[in-house]
Automatic annotation (TrEMBL):
InterPro entries: Nucleotide-diphossugar_trans. This is Glycosyl transferase. It comes from the Bacteria. It comes from Hymenobacter rigui.
Length: 322
């Protein structure tokens, strides 16, 4: 049995994103076995009209329960690990495909689920090593976090899967917008939670939850990337565009079903939004070569987007001459 699992709370924008993720899954899925959705939410009644005909287990997550899950450091992403623990304890032997709400399934996930049931774990995709993050985060407000965690690795071992482990700066950091957890991962989740708590306490790195999964899952399972099946639109520009689309498509309970064609068009447009965002980001930081590369790729896909062209030229002009 596989449970498609989502976490959604806070209001209509978040609820619409979760609906987009869930309905895109069912639009593409062609497997022979039914997949039940486990939805942790503070408002089941919002979802019921949209999910008629979908097998759903609603798991109520009111604010007081969520507050208990964030722990003493008030780390919000800790909630993800806690709900996955609860789910796998509630249904022993279940395999779990967890999706962040800001995701869209872009192709039939049946092959992914077959591999998951065969004992292969999945995460969205690898992003960088811990050492590479020191450079990539250098201009960010949390620039010191990767270095603090690497220092912690040098001072401390961690008990994972029954053995003491020494992690290194060369290990990969994966994005956890998608998590495929074989049933046997239930025994590993207490270790993941302890790692998350130790990593956040020692570094205050906001991605500590996904870093804990990144180092723990490969110790027990083959780990593969899921981005060929699921598109994760985590950047602000992508979210803003997708929020507008979902608000337009889901104005009420009588909203039309999602189709594979629609989700494919959405993903194509989200790719363009990501390229545009990368072009403007690089231009504003005085990096014209990567800025132009991103902009060219975006303009090849949408050649008549004159508003973006104007914004991009302005961003380049605002940079001081070298």
């Amino acid at each position: 049995m596989v449970y498609l699992t989502l976490l959604s709370y806070g209001g209509p924008v978040e609820y619409h994103r979760a609906l987009g993720a869930a309905l895109s899954f069912y639009a593409h899925y062609s497997g022979p076995e039914p997949v039940t959705m486990a939805l942790f939410t503070d408002n089941p009644e919002f979802f019921r009209p949209y999910l008629r005909g979908v097998p759903v287990e609603y798991l109520l997550l009111p604010p007081e329960r969520r507050l208990a899950m964030v722990g003493p450091d008030r780390y919000s992403f800790r909630v993800k690990i806690c709900i996955l623990q609860e789910l796998m304890q509630r249904w022993p032997g279940a395999d779990v495909l967890y999706l962040d709400s800001d995701t869209l399934v872009q192709r039939d996930p049946a092959p992914l689920l077959r591999d998951l049931q065969a004992g292969i774990a999945f995460m969205d995709q690898p992003e960088h090593t811990f050492a590479e993050a020191v450079v990539q985060y250098a201009a960010r407000p949390d620039a010191a976090a990767p270095g603090r965690l690497i220092d912690l690795f040098g001072r401390q071992q961690f008990l994972v899967n029954g053995q003491w482990r020494q992690f290194t700066a060369g290990q990969k950091c994966w994005n956890s917008g998608v998590l495929g957890l074989p049933a046997a991962a239930a025994a590993l989740l207490p270790d993941v939670l302890r790692l998350c708590d130790a990593f956040y306490a020692g570094s205050e790195w906001f991605t500590s939850e996904q870093l804990a999964f990144s180092v723990a899952l490969p110790l027990r399972f083959p780990l593969r990337r899921a981005d060929a099946y699921v598109y994760h639109y985590w950047s602000p520009a992508q979210k803003a565009w997708m929020d507008r689309e979902l608000a337009r498509l889901l104005p009420g309970p009588a909203a039309p079903p999602l189709t594979t064609g629609l989700t494919t068009r959405w993903v194509r447009r989200l790719v363009v939004e990501k390229l545009r965002e990368g072009a403007l980001y690089a231009a504003r930081r005085g990096r014209p070569v990567p800025a132009c590369k991103y902009a060219l790729k975006a303009m090849v896909r949408t050649p008549f987007a004159l508003t973006f062209v104007g914004r991009f030229i302005q961003a380049l002009r605002l940079q001081p001459a070298l």
